[in-house]
Amino acid sequence: MALFAAAVLAGAATVAYAQQADPPKRQQTQPAKPPAKPKPPAATQGKPATPPAAAKAEALPPSQVGIGTHAKQAFMVDPQTSTVMLFKDAEQPMAPSSMSKMMTIYIIFEELAAGRLKLDSRFRVSERARAMGGSRMFLELGSEVSVEDLIKGIIVLSGNDACVVIAEGLSGSEESFAERMTKRGRELGMTKSVFKNSSGWPAEGQYTTARDLAVLSWRTIDDYPKLYRYYAESNWTYNNIRQENRNRLLKITPGTDGLKTGHTEEGGYGQATSAVRDGRRLILVVNGLASMAERAQETSRLMEWGYREFTNTTIFRAGDTVVEAPVWLGAQDKVALVVGRPVQITAPTGQAVSPRVVARFEGPLPAPLVKGTKVGVAAVTLPDGRIIEYPLEIGSDVARMGVVGRVATMIQHYLFGWLS
Question: Is 146 a catalytic residue?
């Protein structure tokens, strides 16, 4: 079976591809990879935003990519296009603080989705959990707490005690659970993270990076969209004690729906933030800020800059035809290959984009064909030179030819195709 590579210039109607000489063998559908998860390639420099009076542009330490920031580490990405808009020492090891609680929550969500855990499952509070310092849910020794309450306690209240309860309930000990966190993180693409406990409590040998936390943020949002809603709760009352979510952006920055703040003496104040506006999501991780107030101000400023200075251009909408593929022994000669999700490009606001899209599939495609079957990829070259692959799907059902038609086609191919 031949490999077809159809080059499509955005907006162009003409598509050319090579014709194969032999009839197709058995169709082999190759699952295509989804859009790449966030990683730090070179990104297009955006225009500097006008900073508030409290942070003059010339006073801001520079970033490797994007505008300057007081944060020691910073990473902003558009996960739909994997475009990195801000990168400042984002691969530098740093103390994870309470942002590591996102890994604990991810594992809880994973257990719930697999059916091994239920929201009304209950875990007992141990002495170790009750004795935890720092931010707490104020759990009572020996009490049994539901998983849903523990989720809220970890996300909204940043409860260190709740993290220990979950760790011991799922893995028997916090040490075993931390090993699971590290292992699962590596599987998700967090290549430079090591966890030593479930809460982010300072510990020797525990570290992460801003990029790794952005990967975890996106995997949480993308893998468990129905459970992600807990990250948007701005306050919660447990045991008659009302506490506010430390993520101030939930109230001051439009579209914010997560994720987690953190603080340690070693690492300073940090935050993993995500917001969505008009269907476009951005993820930002900062760390090393001097106070809660500076964390909120700087995070909000950077998010506004990201939305203002960059826009997404839609190349194909979900369901749009990218190319028509030839069909072998089908009731019709061709079938549309479509994308199941929007194909977008992130670029500085006002910059024209003319991306190159190459459709790759093995064809002709042997009938019968079923709508939605993945048969190839649309490779999109971004302005910074990176290539992202989107799955190509069959756009409509195609029935197989009748017996007479198949026989006639085979004779025609093997006789006249050979003579030609």
Answer: no
